[in-house]
Amino acid sequence: MRSKFGDKLSGNDRFIFLWHYKTAIVINEGLSMTSGTAARQEPGRYYTFESRLPEGVFFEFRPSHLPRNAKPVTDETSGMCIGYTVAQAPGLWQVYDVQGHFVRLEEAPLETPLFDPTDIALFGLGVFRILRTGRVLFESGARAALSAKISQGTLSLLRGRLKFGLHARSLKMTEAAAKHMYDPARYVPLQIQEKTIRYGKRMPDPREGEGMFRYETDIYKLRFDKHRREYVYQKYRFEVIVREYDWTISHFKYFY
Questions:
Q1: Which residue of 11, 59, 88, 155 has the lowest C-beta tally within 10 Å?
Q2: Has residue 35 been placed in a domain?
Q3: Residues 220-244: pLDDT tens digits?
Q4: Number of domains in the chain
Q5: Are strands 201-204 and 212-225 parallel, antiparallel or unpaired?
Q6: Is residue 42 a part of any domain in this protein?
Q7: Rounded to 5 degrees, what are φ and ψ at 231?
């Protein structure tokens, strides 16, 4: 028998080598089992989070069907896209929920009139952003300082549509996973994680132990470009590992 360096081993050396080799395997397997057991046993707790993302940055779980020229309605508190609008005319929008389903026709008169034909052309490219204060900001490429308001009734409808199916508040997190939610580089809205579990690709995750499942999907990060007055999109792959018997998330991460 030879060692890993190619040297011949005597009978006693061969015994010592095999003993160390088998011991290493047992230790490795033990560490793997311990890691999986820890993930299965770590308690989950309910948490409430607000966005830790930089200003003008949001996440989007894009529906499979969206109307042409749909623009995101973003919410600073959660840090995500909660619906879409399609401009029909100055002051008139079609409103769609986060699933891409039509909600209502919204009449939101402009608080600043359009004076230039160019402003009218750029108006359809404008986006609504809901600030943490609750105020709704309309941003467009028009030279005039335009402002418009979406009714509170419409905002309530859009937020209410996020609660269909498995509610994000029904999800628990381990303490380790929850700590990442306070890191701007790791934060992903719970609603996005819930949609990943509901619609993403499901597979067992033997690394984390029995009863642990990994869900994967594509998500988008939106960054508002102040010079172009529009969102720039970046696509990511997102994974969530969850203990299904009590819906506890132990890990989440997005990557290219």
A1: 11
A2: no
A3: 999 999 888 789 999 999 999 999 9
A4: 1
A5: antiparallel
A6: no
A7: -85, 140
